[in-house]
Amino acid sequence: MEALLSILNDSKELSNRDVDTINKATCLSLILAASDTTTITMTWALSLLLNNRDVLKKAQNEIDVHVGRQRQVKESDTQSLIYLQAIIKETFRLYPAVPLLVPHESMEETVINGYHIQPKTRLFINASKIHKDPSVWQDPEKFQPERFLTTHKDVDFKGQNFELIPFGSGRRICPGISFALQVLNLTLASFLHAFEVETLSESPIDMSESAGLTNSKATPVEVFVTPRLPAYLY
Q1: C-alpha angle 206-126-99 in degrees, rounded to nearest 5
Q2: pLDDT at 37
Q3: Which domains can be identified in the chain, with CATH numbers?
Q4: pLDDT for 194-214, tens place per residue?
Q5: Fewer CB atoms < 10 Å away: N or C end of the chain?
Q6: How many Å apart are CA 190 and CA 178, to the nearest integer?
Q7: Among 9, 60, 83, residue whose Cα is nearest residue 195
Q8: What integer pLDDT is reported at residue 9 of this predicted model?
């Protein structure tokens, strides 16, 4: 946004354009894109937790230790919730919101890992496949947040570790990454802190994925929630 605003302030560069419209449209695009993918990730995270109740309880216990039950979760609290951050990382790994990322086009002829790439070739990165590479991840199909506290504790998703790239990498990394992470951490922590969550039946949550540009869940998640905090906090 800083780069955009600096250009918008240059009246000569944009003399024939509606600066306010460009500004509002860009802000709206950033917020809407991050909101959609954040909702998708929240849905997957909750589904994974409901199918792994031991992980759910560990997350709630961690929040109780750092926050207690006499106040609501603050944004500053999320920095201390290491296990919750591991849950979000593992959700990104198993169910990236945009599994093929954003397509790129080669500018010139090149060779990558023995593959000859012609100019103007459309390139898609299969993040979902990369995230489940058995040569990198032990038991790649299993939901194990603890892996990000042990064997992969130094792996981040901000584009520096190519085995986990839910937001892409490089200068074209998703611009909504900061917004998405703030919302995800605070929303999931607040929800788990405030409510006990149960499924409506004993059956496991259906984890089927729908087809599309984004990795939405094929079926809705139906849950029964009960308060776990004093009434004055709601």
Answers
A1: 40
A2: 87
A3: 36-100+127-233 (1.10.630.10)
A4: 999 999 988 999 999 998 889
A5: C
A6: 18
A7: 60
A8: 67
